[in-house]
Amino acid sequence: MMEKMIFGRYVPADSMIHKMDPRSKLTIIFLFVCIIFIANNWLTYTIIGVYTFLMIGLSRIPIRFLYGGLKPVLWLVAFTFLLQLFFTREGTVVVDWGFVKIYAEGIKMGFYISFRFFFLILMTSLLTLTTTPIEITDGLESLLNPLKKLRFPVHEMALMMSISLRFIPTLMQETDKIMKAQIARGVEFASGPLMERIKAIIPLLIPLFVSSFKRAEELAIAMEARGYRGGEGRTKYRQLSWKTVDTLQLAFLAVVTIMLIYFRS
Amino acid sequence: MDISLSHVDYRYQANTPFERLAIQDVSIEIPSGTYLAIIGHTGSGKSTVLQHLNALLIPSEGTVTIGDREIKAHQKNKDLRPVRQRVGIVFQFPEHQLFEETVEKDIIFGPMNFGVSEAEAKKRARIALKQVGLTEEILDKSPFDLSGGQMRRVAIAGVLAMDPDVIVLDEPTAGLDPRGRKEIMDMFYALHNERKLSTILVTHSMEDAARYADQIVIMQQGKVVKKGSPEEIFSAPQDLMQMGLDVPEVVRFQLKLEEKGNIKLEKIFLSIEQLSAAVAEQLRRGVTS
Ligand SMILES: Nc1ncnc2c1ncn2[C@@H]1O[C@H](COP(=O)(O)OP(=O)(O)OP(=O)(O)O)[C@@H](O)[C@H]1O
Ligand SMILES: [Mg+2]
What we know:
The complex is a heterodimer.
Chain A: H1 16-19, H2 22-35, H3 42-59, H4 63-87, E1 93-96, E2 101-103, H5 104-130, H6 133-144, H7 154-184, H8 194-199, H9 202-225, H10 244-263
Antiparallel strand pairs in A: 1-2
Chain B: E1 3-12, E2 20-30, E3 35-40, H1 46-52, E4 61-66, E5 69-72, H2 81-86, E6 87-90, H3 103-113, H4 118-131, H5 148-160, E7 166-170, H6 178-195, E8 198-202, H7 206-212, E9 215-220, E10 223-228, H8 230-234, H9 237-242, H10 249-261, H11 272-288
Parallel strand pairs in B: 3-8, 3-9, 6-7, 7-8
Antiparallel strand pairs in B: 1-2, 1-4, 4-5, 9-10
Helix pairs in contact in B: 3-4, 3-5, 4-5
Bound molecules: adenosine-5'-triphosphate (ATP) and magnesium ion.
Enzyme class (chain B): translocase
Subunit structure (chain B): Forms a stable energy-coupling factor (ECF) transporter complex composed of 2 membrane-embedded substrate-binding proteins (S component), 2 ATP-binding proteins (A component) and 2 transmembrane proteins (T component).
Family (chain B): Belongs to the ABC transporter superfamily. Energy-coupling factor EcfA family.
């Protein structure tokens, strides 16, 4: 049921992307989110697309798996497209059904914005698919370290993040288990009238909440028992190491950015 | 109601990098009224087999027959509710499924989903509660205010109140104290005998398997490696030990006795009473001859 979800899941493999330093991956994602807004015509969007798929290729994540996992999100992308299509009122009218008018600009914006959305989803999924939650957190903590001077709780934020990422799969498993238990007691999650289906969520959500709170409490006790006292003076078992690949990847992104600026209209 | 699995494979997360063949070519016959125990190491696929017994999982290959309903791989299997009504499953740690405000509401939840009237469901709730050894005062309490053992019993009562023909138990006593464990196992055995319920039990306890089951299935790495009556299974204790599985204490005692005491009994005994009678008999004969 929940098996196909890929958010927050790590797929181990031996690829260039997997081997990169999490700091460079995080920087690249951050920059990517910014430069995607430079694109404003077909050519620049194509460059972004080629870049995205090149990265997916380098990561050796099977496309079929990616597609299966992203299927639910594709609906959101399609929805974005329709929203732009119907609510943009610029340019020449292409279709006129009286009360709905579709404008040329609407079609263009629909494509642009939904593709932008789509590429963003792909790249961020790629990050979590090729980087373990621990690496992401270590990377973030190290990148945000300068903010400590401003008394920003960097370590605590990183810890919170790693805990939530770590427990996504557990939560999925738990959801699956409780769903099965309730199906066995006659609940129908997948069919029946809408109201019934909404009601069916309650026997799922309550046990999930109960167990999540219980787990949070147990985790807190376990951490305390092992002497956890926050980030002060804490050393790291895993050391981050910046490699040539990381520099090359950043340089490549710089080239892509220059191309985008050059070709944008 | 007869249940049978024929050449069933199941793959978790098919078509993903996480794909995993959990069970392979599993064939098991469970005629109506059988008490079947499934034993095997952790990860050997016991829970996966159980979930096929009421169509929570649809086989990736092969066929599952539940009563007159056939569930086959590679086809749409619609409206499985009637099957689920007749086969009740008590999962590992069933207390995790409790959610209602009161114990009573939680117990009648299952029966009412299957279209039983509220009055009838409440009647059943009282009967089920008694069966699991709880008193009626508990009915108005919140299930979350109970002790772990009580929660377990309430969850079991919720399955019993569905009045199934087949009851499937996935380590129902894991984590309970020895006395509670025995009470619950005896309760299921009594139900099995009184109502002729088919019972399928997954357990790590060889004692329970030897004491209650008519048939035992041993699983290893997703495959059925041995099937038979408890006598057959435990009469080759070396095989079991080779698989890293235990044998009941009585059998272990008998083996030690034969080794050290220089006697040989004609077969393996599964209860202390039978064993001591046989040993006494042997000794008596030894003296006279
Ligand atoms: N949701 C799942 N996704 C992927 N693999 C799974 C899933 N559930 C079980 N498995 C795998 O299938 C195999 C069989 O699991 P199963 O739960 O049937 O074992 P089991 O015999 O019940 O073990 P235990 O005694 O620990 O309960 C295991 O190797 C497990 O890793
Ligand atoms: Mg199990």
